[in-house]
Amino acid sequence: xxxxxxxxxxxxxxxxxxxxxxxxxxxxxxxxxxxxxxxxxxxxxxxxxxxxxxxxxxxxxxxxxxxxxxxxxxxxxxxxxxxxxxxxxxxxxxxxxxxxxxxxxxxxxxxxxxxxxxxxxxxxxxxxxxxxxxxxxxxxxxxxxxxxxxxxxxxxxxxxxxxxxxxxxxxxxxxxxxxxxxxxxxxxxxxxxxxxxxxxxxxxxxxxxxxxxxxxxxxxxxxxxxxxxxxxxxxxxxxxxxxxxxxxxxxxxxxxxxxxxxxxxxxxxxxxxxxxxxxxxxxxxxxxxxxxxxxxxxxxxxxxxxxxxxxxxxxxxxxxxxxxxxxxxxxxxxxxxxxxxxxxxxxxxxxxxxxxxxxxxxxxxxxxxxxxxxxxxxxxxxxxxxxxxxxxxxxxxxxxxxxxxxxxxxxxxxxxxxxxxxxxxxxxxxxxxxxxxxxxxxxxxxxxxxxxxxxxxxxxxxxxxxxxxxxxxxxxxxxxxxxxxxxxxxxxxxxxxxxxxxxxxxxxxxxxxxxxxxxxxxxxxxxxxxxxxxxxxxxxxxxxxx
Length: 546
Ligand code: VG1
Ligand code: CO
Hints:
isomerase, phosphoglucomutase (alpha-D-glucose-1,6-bisphosphate-dependent), 3 domains, EC 5.4.2.2, Alpha-D-Glucose-1,6-Bisphosphate, Chain A, domain 3, binds alpha-D-glucose-1-phosphate-6-vanadate, magnesium, 7-stranded antiparallel sheet, 7-stranded mixed sheet
């Protein structure tokens, strides 16, 4: 088969963000945009001996442009000499399933086509990222190398071949490349069966445990139907919006209290099942709502760490935990009590990989509804739900009872994140640099009635390989342990998103049941005052509060 060498020129702005390259579909679909990036990945990761003998995994979240993009990726991979491609049927692989397939089949890595929680459709977003052989998102060293290649690229290697039929499971030959279309769900279900006690969960569903899962018309539908309804016997209808749609049914597949409002309303109603959960576009996030109670992702991470031993995979305890810097300190208290280390990393799953590979941690998570463990190298929405179901089953208590007991034991970290979306980029950057310039001077002063104990721009030194990641968010810590963190999002595609993370610890048993926004009201006001949010962004209120 004749390899086509197509001349091209570098395209600016392809620096991967928090989780790969994300742009509007309109940008991705233009000219050589996608092909330039994919070829740059191959240029950056090519082993000295080439891609012969290499297996690569390819799949996506099924969003608009996924089907075309996957064919482009297959052709470029074949033209670059990749020996074997494992492609999810229908072009589908959830992010955690892709991680699972890479690890199980000892692949060299994978290309995941997803813009995750970003909106989809012709006017929505698309994305792509490279995961390495451990199944995890490429570390910064590799994403930097990919970026450098995007600025130097001269030609794209591809084939002039018809599309491969991805709708049937089976094998195809494309030049010297073997393209295997695989069941996107099977390997993942098998892994979940190993980690959790499916017969015990099945028995709980049979004896009346009730559950609602909102797949938000995104990629988790097929996984959720297979696991919750078929494997565990939950009644049909347990999984809602379970058919993946290219535009997510016109909704925004971000499982938060704004976009998963239907689920929230159900869980706060008289008909609420025992547990409610939702996942995002690519299946790596989880929203957990008990009957009448929202469990904040930071609290969920802490509660999962404290109770993980109730599931077979973690029966012998956990080696350690990690959380991203803006995530609340609730899990730190659990680690303390368990006598295991707790690591604080920058935002984004790629920073957990080394800690997991080195066996230093077993469970990790982020405030943005991401929780996972050493079973794969991505956060995993369905895994988190299965762990919650296992804990409910083993403890025989409601989510609300578990949360209350947790707070009574550890105290409560009241926590909220305020997002200001689509802010003018220069206004957002101005806010951050003005605040950064003042950080040093803030230490020792009193703001909003609290003395500032520490203020810095978070920098992380990876304890495993010593790599340093700077500029990971501005944090202001007060003497009473309260904290305000400011960051600009690295996943958005329009303007800038300012994220403000606010946290206060409460140990007083009489004050553990407050409404979160009320409990944090004075710090929220201080956050605005410190950075001049209203003044600089012109916004009186955040767009999303979680
Ligand atoms: C956001 C979250 C971060 C998460 C990332 C990818 O990044 O804050 O915690 O890892 O999305 O999640 P940012 O830079 O926008 O704050 V996913 O589910 O979109 O891959
Ligand atoms: Co996601």
